[in-house]
Amino acid sequence: MSRSWQVLRPEERDRTRFPWGEITWLANQALGNSPELTFGKVVIRSGKRNPTHRHDNCWELLYLLSGRLRHHFGEESAEMGPGELAVIAPGVPHWAQTISDEDACMVVVYSTGERQMEEV
Fold first, then answer.
1. N or C end of the chain: which has fewer CB within 10 A?
2. Is residue 17 classed as helix, strand or coil in its secondary structure?
3. In the chain, where the domains are located
């Protein structure tokens, strides 16, 4: 990033599709606009779940915009609705399943520009 600010246009986003939904990365080190944070939008389709995974190198904040989730954190779980925030410490295995008829849409923030993810 050659200046201290940037506006990211839709065509510049990094979208990855999965059988369960999609992740669109909006800011991170690879995009060149955020060396110290990762920011993205995640959609988990109705009735689907993402794989169990963990992030050993960062904290995760997950803010649910729409839909409902059952989020599993290690051996525990919690239902989440719009406007609720999950804070997940490094190394905690977690996964989420959409439990509403509508897709769950959320924003995620990681405390590093180079988020690591390991499926477990």
1. C
2. strand
3. 12-119
